[in-house]
Task: structure prediction
Amino acid sequence: MMENVTLAFIGGIGMTEILVIAGVGLLLFGANKLPELGRGLARGIKEFRDGVKGDSETKEKEPETKK
Result:
């Protein structure tokens, strides 16, 4: 019944909207915190993809840097 589910709002994001979102993120978190948040988000996405694929074999542990 729900075979044709689409996300209409994804195609409507332009350069102006991306810049506004980036500007708000910069104001909320600050320039020093943004790279750290990006790395955490990337790790989370990677772990999610690995979990969906079922790749629970040997995982290389990345050294965490503390600031």
The radius of gyration is 17 Å. The chain is about 50% helix and 0% strand. Confidence is low (pLDDT under 50) at residues 1-6. Residues 20 and 29 are 14 Å apart (CA to CA).
